[in-house]
Amino acid sequence: MGTMLALLFGALKLGKAGGTLLTMLVSLAVYSMVFGWRFALGFIGLIFIHEMGHFIAARQRGLPVSAPTFIPFVGAWIELKDKPMDVETEAYVAAAGPFLGTIAATLIYFWGSHTDSGLLLAIAYSGFFLNFFNLIPLPPLDGGRITAILSPRIWFIGAPLMVAMMFYSPSPLLILITIAALPALKQAWNYDPADPANQAYYAVPVGMRVEYGVFYLGLAAFLAVMTHQVHGMIHTGAG
Predict the structure, then answer these.
(1) Mean pLDDT computed over 25-29
(2) Separation of alpha carbons 183 and 191, rounded Å
(3) Does the pLDDT value for residue 239 go beyond 60?
(4) What pTM was estimated for this model as a whole?
């Protein structure tokens, strides 16, 4: 108990980084009680890498951004102090999270396959699924912010996918995401391509739209395949 208190007080003295460390420790404690500390540590590590992808990308584009904050069974997020000036910047920052997160999950997958470790494969699966889920084209998920570069109206594809997930596996988190998505869906419904503000924000060369579209579809396909494959490996190993 004394060691835990020392860690907490130490985190408080570290300022912004201390807030990240403190919320990570709380999440680690909660996840450890449910999944065991080894899986919890790996899972939180993958979430951290995902969020640092956003953080690094935001800094690259000169956007003031907060350090990651963790909430158990919700995940983590960074907070942009200013809204991106254009949709390409928004898509770039959004894409960096699942991209870096997928690389990390893939490395753990190869490590787990090489060592025949069920634990590492389970951690890799959680990373693949987490990033795949985040690519649903609906804000506030990363997929919604990436696909905005094509058109906000694509979000209407993400809405039924989210509803289907709620029926397949209901959870409070899905309900929260759905509620948070309602303003974006209203925005997409009222979207006017001729509006000068929209023309300024969404003005992107066709070639760039194609690049992001190919990236998005390729990453989603890879994550879908790996999520399915690793799930099968874990199921076979358990059997």
Answers:
(1) 91
(2) 12
(3) no
(4) 0.88
